[in-house]
Predict the 3D structure of the following.
Amino acid sequence: MGRGPAGRYRVDVDAIEVNRRIPFSAMFNFRDVGGYPGHDGRTVRWGRLYRSDSPHRLDGADLEAFTALGIRTVIDLRRPSEVERDGRVPEQDGLAYRHIHPEHVDWGERPYRQGEDLPRYLADRYADLADTGAAGLAEAVGLIADETNAPVLVHCVAGKDRTGLVCGLTLAALGVSDAEIAADYALSTEAAAQFQAWFASTGQQMRAGLPPLTTPATAMTLFLTELRQRYGTVADYLRRAGLTDAQLTALREHLLE
């Protein structure tokens, strides 16, 4: 049993799945990453770590609802060009903005081809990002590990790939099972359909060569399995990327209850 972001008690998995999402009219993939079982029978705390698509569209009632969550730190994983194109989360008193760009090859240089194995394609792109963007990914997890930054929101453009990796690595370091991590990652599929409908309504078109905006659970499972084959554990990968043992301990101390 865990306490949800609004103080309600979650008593079963179905309740968690129903209440995990926090609805906004201008964001489609905003949700709490709490509630999952981790190390030593402890549970990831609600209301400490959120994930979403880009919050640059927040205004009016959406901005009021966002403010009410008490988020202290926003970690923006987008490319500099994406930040320049769309803008950033609206400035607010007490809200720290951190832009971290995990270096990675533009997916247009390794285009998805129709009929290609999507989970395999995504897992390979995530492995590439884990290699070239290791320092940025570790920096993001390090910010999440610092209790003074919480609550934290992590986002990219659609909130599924770069955000999915940072949240997946964080949950793995907290001892959450691969099955639970993959299930959380897969929740972005429904939101991605809403994001795509909004994107189309703006008159913009998706770039050629991008994969479908879906998040098959197998992609995350493959990524985590193969990351461990290369590095031993997710914690070992994060250490090699620059995270300290003290940060890993702090992550577990304040995100697990």
